[in-house]
Specification:
This protein is α/β, with parallel strands linked by helices. The chain has one domain: 3-Layer(aba) Sandwich (Rossmann fold), CATH 3.40.50. Helix content is about 40%, strand content about 15%. It has an eight-stranded mixed beta sheet, sandwiched between helices. Helix 5 links the parallel strand 5 and strand 6. The chain starts with 14 loop residues before the first strand and ends in an 8-residue tail after the last helix.
């Protein structure tokens, strides 16, 4: 029998921050961490949806109510990211799950002027991790798990056009943001070598979440929305199953730095297993250049971990 949520080790005494915890993989991740005893901060852009998610979590796990907390976090607004980090009361964060994201949206810009997918999926999480790094390094066995996608294989990052200013193709922009997630993990692992922190990545395969339906709903494409919903029901694995690679990377002893965990069967569905990744996501040069650009764009400098 493969690895399931029942295999998650006891998380009592650990504090976890999960971005995008109001739905889909993020909600399942937050719930299962809470089930195993963690204190969980649900970091959500919408306070209304976040509160509904926390209420649902508490209905399922009444004993977790004192250990769950909702805090607002808009990854598309760096002032919100800074406020979240400043107001988080914990002196120590054991686990950061960079899960929230947007997919294949029409061209748009974040509050700070970045292309939306690059700004939310990569830069927001880059800034958040940097602002929480001291608290992560204060933990005994800290981890940062960043959720990427197998669709990263569609495109390498374009370091000369990070904001897709020259041309914009929504799926390529999404793929580049997911490549950025893996390059971020690669460089974070290199920079924190020799510390207890483990920087790892995961992806859900094809899981039934609201990412695709949100895009079609935003554009008023009802037929496409129905087709996607049909695919989610008949082909995709559940959000419960899609969250397993993230939960494995976040909790399983022995998970390696810069590892990439996904579903076992063709990286599409099944239990957690090591996943294939495009060679360009392991480029030291590209990772270092993206890191330098990200520090400049966000104004968040990591320094050198002790």
């Amino acid at each position: 029998m493969g690895w399931t949520a029942r295999n998650i080790p006891d998380q009592s005494g650990r504090t976890a921050v999960v971005t995008g915890a109001n739905s889909g993989i993020g909600f399942v991740t937050a719930r299962e961490l809470a089930r195993r005893g963690a204190r969980v901060v649900l970091a959500c852009r919408s306070e209304e949806r976040g509160q509904r998610a926390r209420d649902e979590l508490v209905r399922e796990l009444p004993e977790a109510k004192p250990r769950t907390e909702l805090r607002r976090l808009d990854l598309g607004d760096l002032s919100s990211v800074r406020a979240f980090a400043k107001e988080l009361p914990d002196d120590r964060v054991d686990l950061l799950v960079n899960n929230a994201g947007v997919m294949a949206l029409p061209y748009g810009r974040t509050a700070d002027g970045f292309e939306t997918q690059f700004g939310v999926n990569h830069l927001g999480h880059f800034a958040l991790t940097g602002l929480l790094l001291d608290r992560l390094l204060a933990a005994r066995e800290p981890r940062v798990v960043t959720v990427s996608s197998q669709l990263h294989a569609l495109a390498n990052i374009d370091l000369t056009d990070l904001n897709s200013a020259r041309s914009y193709r929504r799926w390529l922009a999404y793929a580049r943001s997911k490549t950025a997630n893996l390059l971020f993990t690669h460089e974070l692992a290199r920079r924190t070598a020799g510390t207890p922190l483990v920087a790892a990545a995961a992806h859900p395969g094809y899981a039934s979440t609201n990412l695709l339906t949100a895009r079609s709903r935003m554009e008023g494409r009802k037929v496409l929305e129905r087709v996607i919903e049909l695919g989610n029901r008949t082909v995709a694995q559940s959000a419960e199953a899609g969250a397993l690679p993230t939960l494995y990377a976040a909790t399983e002893p022995g998970v390696g730095a810069d590892s990439f965990t996904g579903p076992r069967f063709l990286s599409w569905r099944g239990g957690p297993a090591p996943s294939w990744r495009a060679p360009w996501t392991l480029s030291d040069e590209a990772a270092a250049r993206l890191w330098a650009a990200s520090e400049r764009l966000t104004g968040v400098g990591y320094g050198t971990p002790a």
